[in-house]
Amino acid sequence: MHIVISGAWPDPEVAAELAPHLAQRAPTLARWLDRGKAVQTPSPAAETWCTPLEHWRLQARGFVAAQAEHISAGLGPLRADAAGDDPVWLAELIHMAPSRDGAALLPAATLDITEEQSAALLSTAREHLDDSGLQLESIGPDTWRVRWPGAVRLACASPALVATSAVNDWWPQDPAARPWRRLVNTLQMAWFEHPVNQARQESGLPPLNSLWLYGGARPSQLTRPEPADLRIDTSLQNAAVTQNWGDWIEALAALEQHCFAPLAGRQPTLVLTGLDRYVTVTAAGGWLARLRARDWRSWWCSR
Predict the structure, then answer these.
(1) Is residue 175's pLDDT more than 50?
(2) Which of 154, 165, 253, 271 is an S-S bond match for 4, by CB 3.0 to 4.6 Å?
(3) What sign does the dihedral 166-167-173-174 (CA atoms) show?
(4) For 54-88, where are the E strands, in sequence order?
(5) For the chain, give me the number of helices (H) and strands (E)?
């Protein structure tokens, strides 16, 4: 069994203060960490162009990046059940908002998008595709597949990563991205007073005013199936990003009750992600291996 917990490995600046709370509020997790062997993996955004959670998922699937391709390219085939082996480009419906750094992205997961809203916006988008040569097809209420008229190579960051930073840091500037940038600018104007967005604003919801492009790898670049009996939990992530450590501790205690404690008799493989890294904790083996294992606080509080 694999249990992956996003946002569960705080930075060293606060990890030492949180360690006693983990031991007290999540004793099952602390026991697993005590008995396990930890392997740390750096996951700097400047290299991966995705979040540590996404990085781990792609590594678990055996993703092999093509030459000059970021790991984030694998998110296309990872998230779309695509036939054949064409490159899989995806566009996520988002809300783009002004910020001190230029613009901020609200990802689809925070926007409560319905199938009907997505279909109506897609219908309008298709009216503006002729000049671009691009094609769009829905694969879910918040994600469309993008087909290019020819081969294209672009570096595109994960929308989940962009949502934690500034859009300007990741907006594709490559000449090959010009058709996409023109299309997005056109859609932003076409959707400005769209009935879908008027209705959303009347309901107090952010308008769906842009798309974020990502992916680009082929399905064959995923060389392994997903690990069996995989559980991914993101309930700590928001508190970790906002550094609301009180909420983080309470969310950890809730995980102890409904996730960890019921599995107390087992030793799962654990993956805990941080801001720019993740750690994989596996069973240490026999008693001698456990004896040689370092106390979990030694890596928990280190960079």
Answers:
(1) yes
(2) 271
(3) positive
(4) none
(5) 13, 10
Say if CB 123 and CB 195 are below 8 A apart. Answer: no
Can you give the pTM of this predicted structure?
Answer: 0.93
Contact 42, 276 (CB under 8 A): yes
**How far is it, in rounded angstroms, from Cα 38 to Cα 271?**
9
Beta strands at 104-106 and 89-97: parallel, antiparallel or unpaired: antiparallel
State pLDDT tens for residues 31-67.
Answer: 999 889 999 999 999 999 999 999 999 999 999 999 9
Q: What single-letter amino acid sits at 244?
A: N
Give the whole-angstrom CA distance, residue 145 versus residue 27: 44
Q: By the 8 A CB rule, do 213 and 156 touch?
A: yes
- For residues 199-205, give the mean pLDDT: 96
What's the token pair of residue 295?
A: 């106390």
Q: Of 92, 91, 95, give the one whose Cα is nearest residue 207.
A: 95
148: its two tokens: 């290019």
3-state secondary structure of 31: helix
Alpha-carbon distance 163 to 182, whole Å?
Answer: 22
Instruction: Give the contacts of 96 (CB within 8 A, at least 6 positions apart).
Output: 103, 104, 105, 106, 167, 188, 209, 210
Compute CA 192 distance to the chain's CA centroid, rounded to the nearest angstrom: 27
pLDDT reported for residue 288: 42
Q: How many residues does the chain have?
A: 303
Residue 298 has which token pair? 């030694």
